[in-house]
Amino acid sequence: MTLFRNKYRVESIRLKEYDYSQPGYYFITICIRQRKCIFGEIVDNYMQLSVRGMIIKKFFQQIGQYFNNVGIDIYAIMPNHIHAIIIIKDVVDVDNGVVNYCRDGVIPSLQMEKSAINKPTLGQIIGYFKYQTTKNINQINKTVGIKIWQPRYYEHIIRDDDGLNKIRQYILNNPKNWNLDKNNPEHC
Question: Would residue 148 count as lying in a domain?
Fold first, then answer.
């Protein structure tokens, strides 16, 4: 650990010199501050979303509307954290100043001006997601400026199909394994 302003700080887990805006699959986990269970509850091994959980779901489903080259492969909203595989896609065609983004192998009709190309980093995507969901949750809570998320997030660059399939299975099984989850407040 290094010192910053005479205090210890946690070193970044991000790979040095890695371009987190490049195309790829990224596994992320984001936790709620103090591990409070605000997104719903696990009932019979299935997640029952609360209103706050529905906000999270809405933003996952709409993330590609803000970042044209970003999609969500699979996700699990848990009572106090989320897991997702974020896909950053490559620009596949530049023609007459118009950029077409590839979405699951299909070039969509959605087009952007060349000057409007948005090549976000993983951190910018997570930052946008945290900001928007916090703002919306504060609106329904009738609060202002209350932080919802922990400051950091976990990420893992998925490098091959085997790793992708294992992580997909982990995400799908997460609600079934809630009783064993280290984020379950009953285990703290």
Answer: yes
Identify whether 156 is part of a domain: yes
pLDDT digits (tens, 9 = 90+) for 4-23: 566 655 555 556 778 888 99
136: phi then psi, degrees, rounded to nearest 5? -70, -40
What pTM was estimated for this model as a whole? 0.79
DSSP-based helix, strand, coil % in the chain, nearest 5: 30, 30, 35
63 vs 33, 94, 128, 129, CA distance in Å? 22, 22, 9, 8
Token code pair at residue 44: 């019979």
Contact status, residue 110 vs residue 101, Cβ threshold 8 Å: yes
What digits encode the pLDDT tens for the residues 77-104?
999 999 999 999 986 444 444 444 444 4
Do 183 and 31 form a contact (C-beta atoms < 8 A)? yes
Domain that holds residue 168: 15-89+119-176
CA distances 115 to 12, 65, 94, 111, Å, are 32, 17, 12, 12
